[in-house]
Amino acid sequence: MNSLNAQEARDKDRSQRAHLLSIADLDRDEIEELLRVTDTFVEVGRRPIPKVPALRGRTVVMLFFEDSTRTRLSFETAAKRLSADTMSFSVSSSSVNKGESVRDTIETIEAMGIDAVVVRHKSSGVPAQIARWTSASVINAGDGWHQHPTQALLDAYTARAHLGSLEGRRIALVGDIKHSRVARSNIEIFTALGAQVTLVAPRTLLPASLSAWPVQVSQDLDAVLPTVDVCYLLRMQQERMTEALVPSLREYTATYGLTSARADRMAEGAIIMHPGPMNRGVEIASEVADRPSAVITEQVANGVAVRSAVLFTLLGAGRQQSSSAAYAANVSNELSIQTDSVLAEELAHAEEAT
Ligand code: CP
Q1: Fewest C-beta in 10 Å: which of 158, 177, 211, 337?
Q2: Which of 63, 64, 68, 300 best tests ligand 1's pocket when mutated (most atoms within 8 Å of CB)?
Q3: What is the pLDDT of residues 249-262, one digit of tens each?
């Protein structure tokens, strides 16, 4: 193969690789399928040995250029539950500190042999750029203000677990919309699943133009709260604010914080969500965060199953299959059989050792 053909072959391989860069890349059927596969991984997580060999021999790299607790740990847990090998990259102890570029970093990691790279970066578009440089699958774990697709999937999964279908449900996204990748991803997934989204924020924390967004907008949280099925609070992202966009945090909390009195105005059965990390006492009162109607730790727990479903679909049997409902239905059986064989293997080793 001459060098031009070799380059073409590499480009073709790259273009055929499955990535998860944005919720906008998924149609409703693909979202529904990922949520169905998530059901299976929730069930796997309840087993005595919550591990399946689906990605044995595969390597997943965590490439986090920005801080994370939930996303990073849940991707690592998900990869390990699928029996993948994992590599973790920490900017603070890497050669990025000596000036190595993102491209050289990704090519260095790829030379070690990887199948997927989970990328978080403070700049929008970096995961998409990395997808052009690597033949591995790229999963966006949050890029700047742009997208956080696995957060959106776990949020949709959690909301549906409580409300059933999201068709016609009313969801308020409250707070710092302007700087929020979670807001952008969640508006897309909630509306794709049939919900009506209302943004509640001061004008300074909204993007300059909302004409292309399928949302309603309000500055009156007290009026919106009794009408919604979900009150989704966003973190005040002080690290992304380059100017004083609210007079003070105290004034912000007085107008837009979910205080106990405001939470009492919500309808029976309505839920409170937050992607974390929370600023207790700012966007959400500490007592409200600990109410049974606040499903914040459930969101975190579902994050492992959703990320397992994403890795399995991009790298596992899902990659060779068409995205049919029949495939999703078969996943459950396949994983049951696989776990049983792992369990049998581990029991056999335990017997040999005694
Ligand atoms: N929700 C979220 O992305 O949290 P982390 O920044 O801790 O990953």
Answers
A1: 211
A2: 68
A3: 899 999 999 999 99
